[in-house]
Design a protein that fits this description.
It is a single chain. The chain folds into 3 domains: about 55 residues, Winged helix-like DNA-binding domain superfamily/Winged helix DNA-binding domain (Arc Repressor Mutant, subunit A, Orthogonal Bundle); about 200 residues, BirA Bifunctional Protein, domain 2 (2-Layer Sandwich); about 40 residues, SH3 type barrels (Roll). The strands form 3 sheets. It has a 7-stranded mixed sheet, sandwiched between helices. Strands 13-12-11-10-14 form a 5-stranded antiparallel sheet, with no helix packed on it. It contains 7 helices and 14 strands. The chain has about 300 residues and is α+β, with helices and mostly antiparallel strands. The structure holds biotin. The site of biotin (BTN) has 20 residues, from helix 4, strand 5, strand 8 and strand 9.
Length: about 300
């Protein structure tokens, strides 16, 4: 389709304007056809900047399907807008999707977070993606994917920016005292064999979101990184994610997780079996559980939420 050809051309020539004539010549069509294709892209939600006597180029940081390079065996699904890439991944699996797949969206209208919360996913300012793996592992090993996913994000941020992110157990990524990334891992399992058929790792990174809804204002932040595009960070993050998941039992991953931990040594409070506990986070177990020294002894927390006092 012409609009896809034009989008690919614009994505590969982000630095300069391309004249309608040049695009028309490259695609072997008329300038009117190019103009129509640009209108269609705009209609799809793709922001294209047009300049008189110069031509067209993609608006500053538009993410396109041509920005991520994947191995041939991985399918790419790209959405300008979708309810939730995790929900869509589940739909694709239910329809019989085979193999690994990456789903990316420029906007989510019903982004989902952990514990039934929503994830604020405004257009063009964040990186929202879900990766479908088929790990063929016991459920207990698949749980490690959650911690590994957090490591993949901090590694990607450190690879592409000068920022120093940290991880709040279990898998929120922070910059200073603000959450900049959330991860929702969902498993489709076969209870008879005890194996996980598919794991959907959904990751949302606030890249340059500048305003948040009132309820998130105090806790949410964004990377606001200079000199890196959403496309470059997405590419690095997907590469790191595939790398850690392929080697999920490698002790170096947990070491990296511990090294980036925002909670170790800090006072935390949490609920376990309906009881409130308070203590000091003292360790991360090989399975990813958090160890908390409380007055009544050592507690091991394998799931749930903790609240941490960051200024102690
Ligand atoms: C959390 O912070 O509680 C987890 C947030 C996970 C958000 C990502 S964005 C891509 C994927 N699709 C969703 O609906 N959620 C995840």
């Amino acid at each position: 389709m012409l609009k896809e050809q034009v989008l690919e051309l614009l994505a590969h020539n982000r630095a300069s304007y391309l004249s309608g004539q040049a695009i028309a010549a490259y695609c072997g069509v008329s300038r009117t056809a190019v103009w129509k294709a640009i209108q269609q892209l705009e209609g799809d939600g793709v922001s294209v900047t047009a300049k008189t006597h110069a031509g067209y180029r993609l608006a500053a940081d538009v993410l396109t399907p041509y920005d991520v390079a994947l191995p041939a065996e991985v399918s790419l699904f790209f959405y300008e807008s979708i309810d939730s890439t995790n929900t869509q991944a589940k739909r694709l699996l239910a329809e019989g999707l085979q193999g690994e797949a990456l789903l990316v969206a420029n906007e989510q209208t019903a982004g989902r977070g952990r514990c039934g919360r929503s994830f604020y996913s405004p257009k063009d300012t964040g990186i929202y993606y879900s990766y479908i793996f088929h790990p063929a592992q016991a459920l207990s090993d698949a749980v490690l994917i959650t911690t590994a996913a957090a490591v993949s994000v901090v590694r990607a941020i450190e690879r592409t920016t000068a920022l120093k992110p940290s991880i709040k157990w279990v898998n929120d990524v922070y910059l200073g005292d603000k959450k900049v990334c959330g991860i929702l891992t969902e498993a489709v399992s076969d209870f008879e064999s005890g194996t996980v058929e598919s794991v959907i790792v959904g990751i949302g990174i606030n890249f340059n979101t500048s305003t948040f809804p009132a309820a998130l204002e105090k806790t949410a932040g964004s990377l606001q990184a200079q000199g890196v595009t959403r496309a470059a960070l997405l590419q690095a993050a997907v590469e790191e994610l595939r790398r850690v998941v392929a080697d999920v039992k490698n002790p170096a991953i947990l070491e990296d997780y511990r090294a980036h931990s925002l909670v170790l040594g800090k006072k935390v409070t949490f609920l376990k079996n309906g009881q409130a506990f308070c203590g000091t986070a003292v360790g991360i177990e090989p399975g990813g559980a958090l160890q908390v020294q409380t007055e009544s002894g050592l507690q091991s927390l394998s799931s749930g939420e903790i609240s941490v006092r960051l200024n102690d």
